[in-house]
Design goal:
By secondary structure, this protein is an all-beta fold. It is 2% helix and 37% strand. The protein has 2 domains: 169 residues, no CATH class; 280 residues. A hairpin with a 2-residue loop joins strand 8 and strand 9. It is globular.
Length: 627
């Protein structure tokens, strides 16, 4: 495993500048005469300098304008572990007026997308109602499509009960085969037929939308109309008058603190290098680092970092904010990301290390990932020892040229909104040489039945045209359809432990190695298609109740590619309930595997054990700290 050294974090600083809420920007920046704004310190710094920020709340967007040098990085950190918050909100000031029994209103200076009360996010008025965060993952708080729904048309007879005119509202649409969500304006609404229309521009499904049969089991919700303001904690902003309406009691209106999201970014940098950031909390804002190099972000917190009322609409004037880092040799280490409406982290480039982070409750509208790593060159990324849970889409998404490594991650409760995605997902022929190893993956279930009567939900996935992927020493359990599914060819799947796949009424596919011909998919940039998949793949030393070759659960046909797999369901692991997946004493798994030089080195005994754990070699994935 490659780990980037935190160059310069312990080096002595050339100059130290201090920042405090009680300071002034015309001060000297000393401990006794600190600057007031972080930006003033940043503008003053030279390579090798250190900025120490005293505890407090800073409502500003920090722009890094100066690069450091290889042995003289620019360092920005919280002073003596004091709590430093870069806050993206502004307080609402002025006099509230009573609008009706439980609704109060106030004139806002500008429009906004997100509202907080005492630092807790409030829900924009929507139908059906949903409380946050209690019902964040409750699919019953979404409405369902009815008979007659098609691409561009939603039919739902329960809409009639609302007695509202939904024309002009915004719909969050988890439609077609529900692998992602879209937001679109409601163009027309017919009360008599309980039907609303939206533009048929949902990329990338337009090319095959008319052939899609799955339009009458879709999910959606609506917001952006005053008629939806009917539950405590909801709010509505009239975009024409900038009047804010809040469903609240008088006590909260008088005594509480309301704040609105005023800034998307708390930190930005472009084409800068050798800077380190440590110990900063970003509240209701995030960072955007573009084309940066040799940077470290460590021990930072991102709370409610990203929120967009509308997303993935080609007609949006401005694309939504993201926690995005592009560049090379970046170390994103021991950070905490929570309650991001879209992806937790997107990082792209060469030689990047994403390590020991905790990411949870992200992509709750079904758009985005927990962590999305994209390799961009010969020095591929390392994504290791992260804990990722409660995601609407995939927990970890891995893309780009091969050689990357995803290891010792703990990913669970993924794909809670979208379908047809996995806890750890990758694919494409360019990933050849990549490795997924020593991860725990569990609890990936999605609504509805798939072909063969199985529920949705995949553990580890090498999707269409995967080539040269190695998947070994992972433990995968409690997934609705597939534990490990690998398409393509020349893949290696060995020493994994897979159990409890499927549902109570039907066994799932524990290890699925597609053997049928590769399908043509017009929306993908495809390599030459194979007439048969996985003819040159190796599958050995796995614990799995079945190893199948297609969605009909036919046995994998190339038996010569399989060696010493244990088709067992129970009785071979020590204590599954407490996540002890070591083989039981005297189990037939011990020393029963096949040794492939270069792949199974490091075993003890006469031969490798079968399964993810070698006798006497316990390992535990995920972050090694608690927030």
């Amino acid at each position: 495993m490659c780990v980037l050294v935190l160059t310069g974090l312990s080096a002595s600083a050339q100059s130290i500048y201090y920042v405090s809420n009680t300071g002034a920007d015309d001060n000297r920046g000393s401990i006794k005469q600190p600057f007031k704004s972080i930006q003033k310190a940043i503008d003053t710094m030279q390579p090798g300098d250190l900025c120490q920020i005293r505890g407090g709340v800073y409502r500003e967007t920090i722009r890094i304008k100066q690069s450091g040098e290889k042995n003289k990085p620019i360092r920005i950190q919280a002073y003596n572990n004091e709590k430093v918050i870069v806050d993206g909100t502004n307080f609402i000031k002025g006099k509230w007026k009573k609008h009706s029994d439980d609704i109060y209103k106030i004139k806002m200076p500008k429009d906004f997308e997100q509202l907080f009360f005492n630092r807790n996010m409030l829900v924009e008025a929507r139908w059906p109602n949903s409380s946050f965060p209690e019902e964040l993952w409750d699919r019953s708080s979404w409405a369902g499509s009815g008979i007659g729904s098609r691409y561009g048309k939603m039919v739902d007879t329960t809409l009639v009960r609302t007695q509202a005119d939904w024309q002009g509202a915004i719909a969050v649409l988890n439609v077609a085969h529900q692998f992602r969500s879209w937001t679109r304006k409601v163009l027309t609404y017919d009360f008599n037929t309980a039907t609303f229309a939206y533009k048929k521009n949902l990329k990338p499904i337009t090319s095959y939308a008319n052939a899609t049969k799955q339009w009458e089991d879709d999910l959606y919700y609506l917001f952006g109309k005053m008629e939806a303001l009917d539950a405590p904690g909801e709010w509505y902003l009239n975009e024409h008058t900038n009047e804010l309406y809040v469903f609240s009691d008088e006590k909260d209106i008088k005594n509480g603190e309301f704040a609105y999201k005023a800034r998307h970014y708390g930190l930005t940098a472009s084409e800068r290098s050798y800077f380190h950031l440590e110990g900063i909390t970003f509240f209701a804002c995030t960072m955007r680092l573009l084309d940066v190099e040799n940077c470290t972000i460590t021990n930072c917190r991102f709370e409610y970092p990203v929120y967009s009322r509308e997303f993935n609409d080609p007609e949006l004037k401005q694309q939504p904010a993201e926690t995005r880092i592009s560049g090379n040799y970046i170390h994103f280490h021991k950070n905490y990301i929570a309650y991001s409406q879209r992806s937790g982290l997107i990082i792209k480039g060469m030689g990047n290390v994403v390590e020991n982070n905790i990411v949870h409750d992200v992509a709750w509208a079904g758009q985005g990932f927990g962590i999305h790593c994209v390799s961009a060159g010969k020095d591929a990324f390392v994504c290791t020892r992260n804990t990722v849970y409660n995601t609407g889409y995939s927990g970890i998404r891995l893309d780009g040229p091969g050689g990357w490594e995803a290891s010792y991650n703990y990913v669970h409760h993924s794909a809670q909104i979208a379908k047809d995605c996995a806890s750890i997902q990758c694919g494409n022929w360019v990933i050849s040489g990549s490795i997924i190893h020593h991860n725990w993956v569990h609890d990936c279930y999605t609504l509805g039945k798939h072909s063969g009567g199985l529920n949705g939900g995949l553990g580890i996935r090498g999707d269409d045209q995967t080539r040269g992927l190695t998947v070994h020493h992972n433990v995968v359990w409690k997934c609705g359809r597939d534990g490990i599914i690998i398409k393509g060819d020349s893949n290696k799947v060995f020493n994994n432990t897979v159990f409890a796949i499927g549902s109570n009424d039907k066994e799932g596919n524990y290890i699925s190695m597609h053997a049928m011909a590769e399908p043509h998919k017009p929306w993908l940039n495809q390599a030459p298609l194979l007439e048969s998949q996985n003819m040159n793949s190796l599958i050995f030393n796995n614990i799995a109740f079945n190893i199948v070759g297609d969605r009909k659960q036919s046995a994998f046909p190339y038996t010569e590619n399989m060696k010493t797999n244990a088709f067992k369901k129970e009785g071979v692991l020590q204590d599954v309930a407490n996540k002890n997946f070591m083989p039981v004493k005297g189990a037939s798994l011990i020393d029963a595997g096949t040794h492939y030089p270069g792949l199974t080195n490091g075993y003890s005994g006469k031969a490798p054990d079968i399964g993810a754990y070698e006798k006497g070699q316990f390992w535990k994935p995920g972050a090694d700290w608690k927030p």
